[in-house]
Amino acid sequence: xxxxxxxxxxxxxxxxxxxxxxxxxIGRINDMVVFVKNTKPRLGKTYKVKITNLYKTFAYAEPLxxxxxxxxxxxxIL
Length: 78
Description:
The protein is mainly beta. The protein contains no helices and five strands. It has a domain at 11-63: CATH 2.40.50.140.
């Protein structure tokens, strides 16, 4: 992926590198830290996310398909 600017509403592939205490995912797109809310992603996995809020040094995103939330082991609830 190039060094293009992130934009609200855009979708990206995000590799989960860490989790916060609630289990939400944290990754990086270019030099921007991205927090993925309302997920329980698996570390090291890549997910499609949509940027919802954008700040100077970080952003918030949500999983692209909210109807199938992620759970701790990386599976999807069907």
